[in-house]
């Protein structure tokens, strides 16, 4: 745990007692703060009280003696409307911040020569994979690297700073908008497409939150940005121009769509580094089992630049990428039945993430649906070339069937279990070379499942049931 001492002997309010809020409360208590915690959910308050975190109804007390409000990232503080406790804090000029800001202040309090290296990774899609990949590369190369933030481990639950430690943080827009002081030695923006717009008051607010990852960088730092979508490209070009007129972080463009004359490019399973070489250095990752697809090529290119910034040689990075096993529910190969591969991409909850999956395989039998997001499948209109048939589930199945009419043959299945059976049977009967049953929903999961993980687990269970049935038929 990283002890937060900046509020020692002061009263600090903590709103939201899930994983992040509890982590912040523990770190503040360890640093000598008087924590006043609250959660609108009584069960969460009970858990906190059992852990020794005192709960106080923050709407029923005087705020004049509170030094800060620590807000869990899931709680709105601006749009669509701020939580009432946030309004109380702002009415008396109490600063509102998140756990990442507490992390940043704790690191900044260390003398500059002793501070650990910090990498911050954000983007609409791919940030979890890139965070895990970079951490894996660093660890495989002997570095003391630890991943935290939105990836699952709250940043304040990471080990205390010590010589040689490297922090790799996945940063969501919710976390970044509550952060002012974070300094990233390497900051990565993988892509930018409309998402969470209700929470940020529109795309401009969403983009502004994402750009905070670069806010406190200096000339010895790296700003790593994609050139593969219009929004990220605009920011990257602006940064490159600004580099010419003032001191700031060195900007490194990355692309999986074009070969860059100055930058890091991915093509046909290879990373090309044209930053420091007259003839681009080529790193072959074509056999890396967990990095299939062009989007993972972009993730790998960004992780490569960051690892180089940490001092690792190219051959060591390439070797580490070969042993990366990937993440559950993100383009996860869960097995094959009678030549049909099953890919669990349950984390693909928006159309842009699905576009990446549809571009990674031939002969796709695609399972989609759930609780639709704004726009539905509109962004996928030119991405269906390899989709042989779609199998639709959940609340979105009727709307998706209408959107796919005339583009892709679609079957409404209702449940995920039925969709898996129908997709498998259709794939078995199809005259194709490399059939893939792909769960890549383009939807939230909450109509039928607790979260995307539960949906992915259900997909795996349905696949296992099919496998057992096939074995029984063969032995009969």
Provide key terms for this protein.
34% helix, UDP-N-acetylmuramoyl-L-alanine:D-glutamate ligase, 9-stranded mixed sheet, alpha/beta, Protein-Tyrosine Phosphatase, Chain A, globular, Rossmann fold, 476 residues
What does this structure look like?
By secondary structure, this protein is α/β, with parallel strands linked by helices. It contains 15 helices and 21 strands. The protein has helices spanning 19-30, 42-50, 84-91, 99-108, 127-140, 173-176, 197-200, 203-211, 230-243, 294-309, 314-322, 351-358, 397-404, 416-429, 452-475; strands spanning 11-15, 34-38, 66-71, 96-97, 117-122, 144-149, 165-170, 186-189, 222-226, 250-255, 264-267, 270-273, 281-284, 332-337, 340-344, 364-369, 371-372, 387-393, 410-414, 436-439, 443-444. The longest helix has 24 residues, at 452-475. It is globular. It starts with 10 loop residues before the first strand and ends with a helix. The mean pLDDT is 94.
Q: Roughly how many Å is the radius of gyration?
A: 23 Å
Average of the residue pLDDT scores: 94
Identify the quaternary structure here.
single chain
* Number of helical elements: 15
The spatial strand order of the largest sheet comes to: 6-7-5-8-9-10-11-12-13
Number of domains: 3
Rounded to the nearest angstrom, the distance between the terminal CA atoms is 56 Å
- By DSSP, the count of extended strands is 21
Helix content: 25-40%
CATH topology description of the largest domain: UDP-N-acetylmuramoyl-L-alanine:D-glutamate ligase
Text of the CATH class of the largest domain: Alpha Beta
Q: What's the CATH architecture name of the largest domain? A: 3-Layer(aba) Sandwich
Q: Report the uncertain regions.
A: none
Largest sheet: 9 strands, mixed
Approximately how much beta-strand content do the residues carry?
15-25%
């Amino acid at each position: 745990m990283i002890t937060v001492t900046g509020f020692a002997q002061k009263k600090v309010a903590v709103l939201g007692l899930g994983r992040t809020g509890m982590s912040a409360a523990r770190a503040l208590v360890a640093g000598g703060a008087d924590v006043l915690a609250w959660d609108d959910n009584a069960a969460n308050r009970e858990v906190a009280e059992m852990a020794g975190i005192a709960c106080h109804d923050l709407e029923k007390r005087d705020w004049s003696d509170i030094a800060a409000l620590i807000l869990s990232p899931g709680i709105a503080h601006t749009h669509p409307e701020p939580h009432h406790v946030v309004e109380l804090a702002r009415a008396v000029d109490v600063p509102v911040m998140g756990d990442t800001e507490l992390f940043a202040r704790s690191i900044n309090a260390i003398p500059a020569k002793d501070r650990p290296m910090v990498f911050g990774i954000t983007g609409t899609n791919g940030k979890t994979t890139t965070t895990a990949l970079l951490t894996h590369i660093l660890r495989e190369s002997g570095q003391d690297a630890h991943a935290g933030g939105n990836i699952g481990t709250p940043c304040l639950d990471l080990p205390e700073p010590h010589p040689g430690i490297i922090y790799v943080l996945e940063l969501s827009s919710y976390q970044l908008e509550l952060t002012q002081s974070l300094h990233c030695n390497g900051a990565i923006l993988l892509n930018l497409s409309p998402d969470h717009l209700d929470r940020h008051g529109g795309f401009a607010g969403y983009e502004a939150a994402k750009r905070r990852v670069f806010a406190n960088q200096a000339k010895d730092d790296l700003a790593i940005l994609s050139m593969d979508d219009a929004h990220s490209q605009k920011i990257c070009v602006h940064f490159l121009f600004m580099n010419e007129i003032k001191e700031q972080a060195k900007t490194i463009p990355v692309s999986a769509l074009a070969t860059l004359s100055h930058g890091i490019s991915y093509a046909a399973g290879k990373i090309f580094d044209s930053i420091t070489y007259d003839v681009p250095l080529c790193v072959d990752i074509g056999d890396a089992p967990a990095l299939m697809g062009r989007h993972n090529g972009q993730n790998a290119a960004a992780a490569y630049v960051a690892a180089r910034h940490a001092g690792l040689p190219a051959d060591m990075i390439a070797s580490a990428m070969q042993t990366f096993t990937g993440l559950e529910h993100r383009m996860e190969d869960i097995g094959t039945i009678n030549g049909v591969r099953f890919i669990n991409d349950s984390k693909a909850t928006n159309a842009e993430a699905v576009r990446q999956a549809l571009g990674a395989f031939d002969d796709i039998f695609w399972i989609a649906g759930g609780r639709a997001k704004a726009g539905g499948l509109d962004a996928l209109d030119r991405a269906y070339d390899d989709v042989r048939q779609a199998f639709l589930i959940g609340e979105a199945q009727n709307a998706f069937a209408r959107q796919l009419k005339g583009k892709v043959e679609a079957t409404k299945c209702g449940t995920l279990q039925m969709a898996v059976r129908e997709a498998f049977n259709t794939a078995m009967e199809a005259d194709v070379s490399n059939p893939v049953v792909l769960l890549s929903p383009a939807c939230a999961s909450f109509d039928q499942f607790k979260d995307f993980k539960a949906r992915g687990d259900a997909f795996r269970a349905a696949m296992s049931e099919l496998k057992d049935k096939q074995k029984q038929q063969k032995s009969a």
